[in-house]
Amino acid sequence: MNARKLESGPVREAVRGRWVPVLQALAPELDAALVKPGRHVSCPVHGGRDGFRLFKDVETSGGGICNTCGAFPDGFSLLQWLKGWRFPQALEAVDAVLGGVALPNPALPVKAAPRKPASDDAQIHRRLDETWAQSKQWQDALSQPLRDYLAHRGLGLGVLQGVEAIRFHPGLRHHDEDGHYGGTFPVMLAQVSDAQGKPVTLHRTYLTQAGRKAPVENPKRMMPVPSDQPVLGGAIRMGTAGPVIDLAEGIETALAVRQATGLAVWSAVSATLLAGFEPPPRTENVRIWCDLDRKGVGEEAAHKLAERLAERGISTDLLIPPEAMLRDGKGVDWLDVLNECGPAAFPPSPNRRAAA
User: Fold this and answer.
1) Domain parsing of the chain, residue ranges
2) What confidence tens digit (pLDDT) does each residue in 174-201 have?
3) Quick one: CA torsion of 157, 298, 195, 10, rounded to 10 degrees?
4) Do residues 200 and 232 touch, judged by C-beta distance below 8 A?
5) 15/147 Cα distance (integer angstroms)
6) Under a CB-based contact definition with an 8 Å cutoff, are residues 190 and 236 in contact?
7) How many whole angstroms separate alpha carbon 86 and alpha carbon 79?
8) How far is CA 243 from CA 233, 278, 282, 284, in A?
9) Were both Cys, which of 61, 65, 211, 213 would link to 149 (CB 3.0–4.6 Å)?
10) 0.90 exceeded by pTM
């Protein structure tokens, strides 16, 4: 590896438009995905059938997404996930393949990304539309498993009042990453919208008829994302926001903040998507209701988002659960705070603003 300290800016500029050959050199496990960027293939980390794809603009961004592991907006984050590297290691590896950014024009071919067949996206859009059309409002008589699930998690029914992005499906098939059928279960459906507010895909939480998580591996799954509608930057919008947006990671965490404060809170679904969140135009402040865990994943994602938004003049508040609530081997989120301490433990002035 390069012994000199690298600046990320020049390397990022040098690799832009050259990510395909760089990934071919550093990550042969991506070969199947690189043949047809945008096409769903087996996840290079945990296997399965078709849960992973590279973005259509992979030659420019280097990014990809796994329905289970999350989204990786650029080649650096993708390599960190694949190889277990920290950012400096990924930066040095990319620079080494490029031959050093001091070279004016690294001699690497750029492979054009084949276009994904339009029929694939059409099938995904049709499946998403049909699934949403078959779903029920939370007040529907058939939606009792959803209401029981929320009650079991410590959330009142009123928390869904006015929330259009959460619905109930009476029965969806669950397949593991290898395509094996595990049963048909009731599902809490959540509509994920892109940065412009346009629906992109659906998030599923598989339940039992008694309102518990279904006894399957990965009961929380994202449905496929059409290649022409990137999910990165989006969120599950639970309410209408103004110039101030309240953002949490998980759905239940966002609902807990909503219940305790009465705020319209959006869910970013995962830490990776939270770090890449794109606020709507005219946003002035984003309050990030962080998860607290011993590995610091939730806080790290929040800090990445805060740094990125600060460059655009958008202030942030990072609201973190009390560290005293940390357990051995288990993190804490604002749903834990609600259940253990009640609404009084939430920040007393949620409408305050502070610079990032």
Assistant:
1) 8-98, 120-222, 244-345
2) 987 667 788 999 999 999 998 888 999 9
3) 180
4) no
5) 49
6) yes
7) 9
8) 17, 13, 6, 5
9) 211
10) no
The third-level CATH classification (topology) of the domain covering 120-222 is DNA primase DNAg catalytic core, N-terminal domain (3.90.980)
Q: Which residues contact 92 (CB under 8 A, 6 or more apart)?
A: 1, 2, 6
Question: Bridge partners of 54?
Answer: 64
SS3 state of residue 68: coil
Q: What distance in Å separates the CA atoms of residue 325 and residue 321, rounded to the nearest whole number? A: 8
Q: For residue 236, what are the contacts with CB-CB under 8 A and spacing of at least 6?
A: 165, 166, 190, 191, 192, 193, 203, 251, 254, 266, 267, 268, 269
**Which CATH code of 3.40.1360.10, 3.30.1330.30, 3.40.30.10, 1.10.357.10 fits the domain covering 244-345?**
3.40.1360.10
Give the span between the Cα atoms of 23 and 27, in whole angstroms: 5
Give me the count of residues in the chain.
Answer: 356
Distance CA 28, CA 34 (A): 9
Least confident stretch, 84-98, 99-113, 123-137, 264-278: 99-113
Contacts with 284 (C-beta within 8 Å, 6 or more apart), sequence order: 243, 244, 314, 315, 353
Distance CA 169, CA 114 (A): 36
pLDDT, average across residues 216-229:
82
Q: Which CATH number fits domain 8-98: 3.90.580, 3.30.450, 1.10.287, 3.30.70?
A: 3.90.580
For residues 354 and 306, is the Cβ–Cβ distance under 8 A?
no
For 143, which DSSP code? G
